[in-house]
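Re: that chain you flagged

S.,

Sorry for the slow reply, it's been a week of failed gels. I finally had a moment to sit down with the sequence you sent. For the record, here it is as I used it:
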Amino acid sequence: MLLLLPYLYCVILAFIFSIYLKFYRKSNKLVLRHLPIFGFLPEGLFDFHLFHDKLSKTLRNRKGTILINYWLLPNNFLLTSDPANVHYMLTTNFSRYPKGSEWQKRFDVFGHGFFNSDNEEWMLQRKAVRRFLTHTKFHRLTAKIVPEIIEKGVIPVFEHACQNDLAVDLQDLLKRYTFDYATIIATGCNPKSLSIGMPEISLSKAFDDACETIFFRHIVPETLWKLQRLLRIGKERKYRNGWKVIDEFYHNILIKQDEESFNLLNFYMNRNDISQPRENDEEVMRDNVISVIFASEDTTSTALTWFFWLVSQNPEAISKIREEIKVNATPKDANKGAEDRPLLFNFDELSKLVYLHAALCESLRLFPSIPYETRTPTQQDKLPSGHRVNEKTIVIICTYAIGRMETVWGEDCCEFKPERWITDEGGIKHEPSHKFFAFNTRPRICPGKEIAFVVMKAIAAAIIFNYDIQVLENSPVIPSLSISLRMKHGLMVKINRKSY
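Prediction finished late last night. Pasting the structure tokens below so you have them in one place:
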């Protein structure tokens, strides 16, 4: 097999050259390193940390949509940041644009859960997840454990960093916050990863490796990543090892399971979600528990990391958030009169923090946690942009680019302006979900959207009101090449206690 590698290398070079010629004929302004297909080239050869921005610029220059049709590829690719196309595909003609087998092939680590399923199976599983997320016990559980994690996990780590003048990877801390929360709601077990000792989180690392590998699978020829998988090398080796970690985590959770607690695993075990048992119930249960942990941990912590970086660059936004908290939130009873303790606020008052909500929306517009979505048409079709697609077209919705389209958000689309989300009456301005695509759009809009804002606002209010966050100047802030937009090198910060 190794003897085939030189031949494979020549094929790849020919592939690159053919793509370059095809684009060059169409536009002499489009240079090789701007093309999204070249993500498989060695990191550092081109400006890889600018991948998302350069793709966004290319889409702006092409009116939001690019059709890539190569004779060497079994599939065509259509990349779009046009909200009209998004609305047409995922709302008006939803049944024609499922995730499809191409998605399931690349996201196989998530199995047969709601994250990967389509059609009737998806509707059944989504109904189950929604029943869990809207259950009264779920909201009681969230209202209990989020303040507990902040008080017993976040605050001690911050206080320790302040007292010892330590630099902290804020992204890692936020991942531990959301990981502990996600694991509790999904399994009932508290991993207590957020502590001064910062124990290793093997499951979180496995998710990170999986996200990078899945991204890699989207931007290289299928034969290349399948060859890596066969030889157990490169990213596919990490993916395989990560899958083992995920399975081991799940089986350990089953052993420790407390049958009396309310969580997603028990919700499935008690068959509250389905009327009749099915053959693959055990498998679906595993896949949905893992999917909920991933979605709650990775996407929420990624959104929070970019939010804190953005507000750290905008002192005026921080001042407005602090003033809003002073006016609209009251300290918990346990904090009243305790001058030496950071103030924590009543959970039910978070909905009053309009400017904080707007700042989170603005951060998600610029840095959506999931920068790309893919779909596969079931039939020939013509999009509002005029482009034609068929069963062999893989449609890539570029969420990151949608937030940077001047035709969608105006000439100031690249600026951080929370005010764009606030109405003249002082409420939150509604933007259609095919335009603000950070949570997908209907009918596949994220069922945990509202709870995600609650989890984010709870920790954002606690940190911003009590601490000053200073990003270290020598800390590179660049996104990973992954299906998740987490920061590649974390977010290194210094923390100082705020005095009033």
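What I noticed first: Residues 2-497 form a domain with the Cytochrome p450 fold (CATH 1.10.630.10).

Talk soon,
D.
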